[in-house]
Amino acid sequence: MTTTHLQSWRTRVALLLAGQTLSLIGSSVVQYAIVWHLAMRTDSGAVMTVTTLCAALPQAIVSLFGGVWADRWNRKALIMLPDALIALATVALALSIANGGEALALFFVILLIRSAGGGVQTPAVQSLIPDITPEEKLLRVNSINGTIQSVNMIAAPAIAAVLINIMPLWAILYVDVTTAVIGIAFVALIRVQSAARTRSNEAPSVLTEMRAGLRYAWRYPRIRSVLISYALVCFVNIAPMNLTLLLMNRGFQGQTLDLRFTVLETAADKLAANEMAWSVGMVVGGALLATVGAKLFHDNMALLAAAFFGMGIGTVALGLAPTLLLYLFVDFLIGVSTAIGTSPTYTLLQQETESDMQGRVFGLLTTFSGFGTPLGMLVFGPLADVVDVRVIFVVGGVLTIPFGVWLLRVDKRWARKVR
């Protein structure tokens, strides 16, 4: 019996989730610290637009290649290598800041590198999960993964808010380096029987395989509709959500909120509360799916449509919220809606995509959503310096709802065909 067989699927999943959890929390703390530093330093919609482009566009482009690589090469290596390269880039930024180098261009370059690493890693992670998980457990594992990541997103802004008030930015950057090393070690312990993905002399080119992945996705209406709707929702909804930093700074400046266990007074406190409210909602939504939802709900497309409805209505409410307390409550509900859509989306694609095409399909998902967000920011970011940022949230929310209607129609047509 091989070592792979001695290692149960639960052990392999636990090692993967543990490694990704540790890597994510360090990356999130540093990402929050960098973005907040730039937001508080500039208070500029233009700078937030460039920041979003640098954080999203490289991942969108590289994911096209990352998806092909995930179908062709060792998925474990494609998960670990980006963490190592990002850690090295983060060390370089820390050393530069410690020696007085804080040019905006430097921050943008590091964000570009971090984003590109995600373009390689994300398709590999999503493709490795069905390699080590029984199909009937996929929704549960994806929901647990989403819940763990959401817990990290609660901890990360809280940690970042504390650290940014007591430590220089260069020192905070080493948090990511430490967690990356530990995360790589966990993933290295996973034993997987690798499929033959090594390139031969007759293997098609990367561009040919990318085109094959796109043709494959377009052949199936459910996969195609998920990819398109994700991209367009990122354009009209997720992009404006990147302006919550400006909404908090401008809309609730001077407001103090006493939550009994803490008082939100400073800009850093409010930015952390903004992230944490959404993340708590993600935890609640993910926990519901991982427990009750995985047993009761089996229509992943309908769950994604419901998530779009919730995100659209919630985004409108964010723009209309008169108080910080109501804003945070609505932000929590948007987090619940987001979790209800994320795990079913991954599960649907994992179940309905052939194993040797999963990397490319997830690469397309990352690319489509990755392009949607920066393109949306090119529109909404500059507008935030011209019009009331609240109007942008209302418009973005209203434009999100039709995509939920579209997915329900696609789902009903598919249900009639399989009867």
Automatic annotation (TrEMBL):
Origin species: Bifidobacterium choerinum
Keyword Transmembrane helix attributed: yes
Pfam families registered for this protein in UniProt: MFS_1
Membrane spanning stretches: 12-34, 46-70, 170-190, 227-248, 276-294, 301-320, 326-349, 361-383, 389-410
Subcellular location: Cell membrane
Claim: Cell membrane is one of the keywords in the record: yes
Domain Major facilitator superfamily (MFS) profile: 7-414
CDD domains with a match to the protein in the record: MFS_MefA_like
GO molecular function, one term: transmembrane transporter activity
GO CC annotation: plasma membrane
Top-level taxon of origin: Bacteria
InterPro entries the UniProt entry points to: MFS, MFS_dom, MFS_trans_sf
Main subcellular localisation: membrane
Gene3D superfamilies to which the protein is assigned, alphabetical: MFS general substrate transporter like domains (1.20.1250.20)
Keywords from the named record: Cell membrane, Membrane, Transmembrane, Transmembrane helix, Transport
Membrane topology per record: Multi-pass membrane protein
Classification of source organism: Bacteria, Bacillati, Actinomycetota, Actinomycetes, Bifidobacteriales
Name of the protein this chain belongs to: Major facilitator superfamily protein
